[in-house]
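Support case: user asked for a sample of complex input and structure output to validate their parser. Sending the pair below.
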Amino acid sequence: MTLVFVEPIGVTVEIPDGETLLGVVTSGAVDVPVDCAGRGTCGKCLVRTGAGAFSEPNEIERGKVPASKLAQGWRLACQTTPLAERVSIEVRATQGRRQILTTSRLHPGEPHPAVVREPVALELPTLADARADSERLLNALGATELPLGVLRRLPQTLRDGGFRAIVTRYEGRPIDVEPPDTDGRACGAAVDIGTSKIIAYLFDLQSGRQIDQEALENPQMRFGEDVITRLTQAIHSGRLDDLRRAARGGVNELLARLCARQGLAARHIYDLTVVGNTAMHHLALGISPVGLGGAPFAPAVAAPLTLRAVELGLAVNPEAGVHFPPPIAGFVGSDCLAVITATRLAQAAAPSLAIDIGTNTEIALVHDGRIRVTSCASGPAFEGYQITCGMKAVEGAIERIAIAADGEPRDVRTIGGREPLGICGSGVVDLLAGLVAAGIVDSGGRLQPHRRVRRSATGPGQEYLVAAGPQGDIVFTQHDVRSLQLAKAAIASGCKLLLAEAGLEPAQIAQVLVAGAFGNELDVDNALAIGLLPAVPRERVAFVGNAAGVGAQMALIDVDERRAMSALAGRLEFLDLATDRGFNEVFTGELGFV
Amino acid sequence: MTLVFVEPIGVTVEIPDGETLLGVVTSGAVDVPVDCAGRGTCGKCLVRTGAGAFSEPNEIERGKVPASKLAQGWRLACQTTPLAERVSIEVRATQGRRQILTTSRLHPGEPHPAVVREPVALELPTLADARADSERLLNALGATELPLGVLRRLPQTLRDGGFRAIVTRYEGRPIDVEPPDTDGRACGAAVDIGTSKIIAYLFDLQSGRQIDQEALENPQMRFGEDVITRLTQAIHSGRLDDLRRAARGGVNELLARLCARQGLAARHIYDLTVVGNTAMHHLALGISPVGLGGAPFAPAVAAPLTLRAVELGLAVNPEAGVHFPPPIAGFVGSDCLAVITATRLAQAAAPSLAIDIGTNTEIALVHDGRIRVTSCASGPAFEGYQITCGMKAVEGAIERIAIAADGEPRDVRTIGGREPLGICGSGVVDLLAGLVAAGIVDSGGRLQPHRRVRRSATGPGQEYLVAAGPQGDIVFTQHDVRSLQLAKAAIASGCKLLLAEAGLEPAQIAQVLVAGAFGNELDVDNALAIGLLPAVPRERVAFVGNAAGVGAQMALIDVDERRAMSALAGRLEFLDLATDRGFNEVFTGELGFV
């Protein structure tokens, strides 16, 4: 992998060796536009080369970039290939607005993984020293026990290798013994089980470097899109085991894809960390979530769990550790803990807020050494789900859109520069903010008469025609507005109550860190405009991407971080919105647009 | 169960409530004959009632027992039922020759099992105390962790029972949580995996009392009758997994029979102890026995192992502990350790020898605080296997036979008094000793001419006609004599070399304790006559039955005993006969009959 350090924002992005800087531009770490999917035709992906060697400008670049700029080092990212292992580039100051969390940035030191591999050379058994094989090995390792699966093969493995072997340990305990000529590294995966999406990050545990990542829709979706439906299915319809198997199948599918792509043997994955909300945690583990089905919403377990992969049916080394950082409460999961860890929120000197927006949104506030957390059921509207023309942030999704004063769409940008197929989360926020600003959505959330507003063809009420797409009109309905109103009111109420609990006003918040799967693409001004975020100056808002995933990665490559997370869990104070008598009033007040 | 104390030998035998004393007579603890299988027709099972109440003499007894003897308390065991929970009876002095080990005798105190059950009553969750279910339970128990399987059901179990439950712990760790109205006791099983036979003893762990027992042929027999064949199958023919599954299937079958007969739920079996020779240990665990296939015969593991039942596929509670006491060396297994434990050999003040005769025979010698052990491949001849008309000690087997001076059979006694079908181990020893004494087998082991000696109909060489049975002639062939010669020479050589190593003569041995599945029925004089046992006065010889099984039982009901066994293993000094240069000479010298 090639490491690209990006000035002035100070993040490092990894791209495969021999590939162009397009990977940096599309990593989400910077805000450099690419409208031609890297074909070199739009000429927008300008970056300035810094330290290290790069490929010479090619024909395409010489046609798109003025000679004077080329001389200053400005290049098209999609045509420029780093020729050194570590290089630096510069982007325009306004293009570095986003603060993307990456493990390499947050964990700059040596990795300290649970898993280490070491070669051993044992003395051969003789008549005078016919010690048992396992005793011989354990004496040499200073360890006390071998897993049964390893013990079963040990005599053959040792004899095949002339009593030389490679031993893999997990927290000091030997968990694998392989022939001395075994090729392969010790790998691990950080897994973020979201209600809608499961993401797996593959790491080399020795270097602490990310190798690859992969995501898929949570296969539990077929049992219900939202957490409550799935809990009901598990508690009242006997589907707990089906839900468990669905989650397991999703994780195994991700791991299989990663192994296939990297030519990695699954048995060389020795460690997993898994984060998720408390319902996902319970359902993935097959733990009855009956306590989460009603007040007082007691989870089944709030301790960190480290299980063996074989117990969970995960298709990695059977003795691999699978670490689940602790859930905090019924509706504040280990994903929230991971966000707090990844953002270093607990170490913040000034009042700081972290908001992880998803189907369930968790909010954490640090102030005066106390960490308060809460959660609210925000629904999947901000992820593009349950919106008439909503879609995931994939090619063809409208990710940016402005509405002119006359109510007409303008500057419509789709992912990959393709014809629009639908609207993803960031586009929905832009659209809503634009329609409110243009007066087409009034302060109560009602669509007003306009040339583009018409009776909905698909349901009751009105709709706004966003664009004519190749697969039909893209519209934004009254129902969509209502869904977004409810979602943003839930999130805003959570923030408001948490601040009130701490005796703080929004203006006193030094930073608002916004995490979420869609977060990279959100427009701060628009998010502030619709009241999704507390009213703070826009420069205090930073998007941190999938911070939960980064927290899981940190726990994967550093056991001290893992322990710190468990300790941190004990410090979190949970505010239960469901039992807060002021919630309904605040919620109602947050429904409209000021 | 009713406890029957037997004078003058001082053993306690348990029989089911309401059953006659026949169970005592057939327990193997005493040498009282029963020739009519308890129908009351032979009149031989005379015992004298002592303390406690008994049923009145019935019609059958009044017909068989003279009034004067009835008045003295002499009764037919098969017709007399104890009416109290504890009674005592007396047998004639000569009938108490055998020293049978029973757990109740060796472990007279309170049981100290690994498993305990206790009720818990937890506070109900409230909004003010929404602790996680597992935290709530673990706090109450002062424990730290729950198995995943228990955690999965915990929320439902607690809610179903109003947060009251019955908790089962294993060495302090909670391994089961059940509704408060659960009926059932905590049970365990001691398992003795012999090369030929697997025996399981079912215990109530709270009382430390044996409930039942069951045995079957080791299903591994189909892969080879002897250890070496099975090792070869595992090492060179890839049958290790088949052998493992065969052993597991046998144990599961025994447990299923015991549970069915006792109306016991398999999930209430929470603890197992398993003993066996090292090959059986490895094969049952699925551990590669490649180290046992050649010098220096290093076992794969010589440490005690405690595994979870689910890991081994045993059909009991998945979290049940399965404890394997440590093997000592390649051919001295945990069964030998169990024999030493059961016979209290390590505590003997005077030089003592324990011989566990089986397909593989282990010998242990205690002298001057040192415990030396060895083993020899004696083959299954003394168990009735690989003998032309050999059979197991079941109904129809000749278990006693004398040969008159004229070479004619006399006093033939079969098990159950039936027509003879074959000869079991004890009958084989009687027969061989009798034929040697009558000169029909000479000192070199050759069959001599005699009216009953004829050319074998089934194979090469001569044979002696023992009896005409309903299913054909019962014969004893030259080949049978050779098999027994090899077996007894192996055992005798082992004893001789072990004594020589300790600088002892046979006459210095204070006691010779003979264990083995057939041991109860062996005739001491005959065993001494053929040189199977060292030349000691006959009163120093005691048969102790399946002492390995008793050792496993002791480890089952007392964790301190379990730990003591592990400590004892470290004290045993293994003498490797295979590498003793004097072995072949001694062996050759022991082949004949003096």
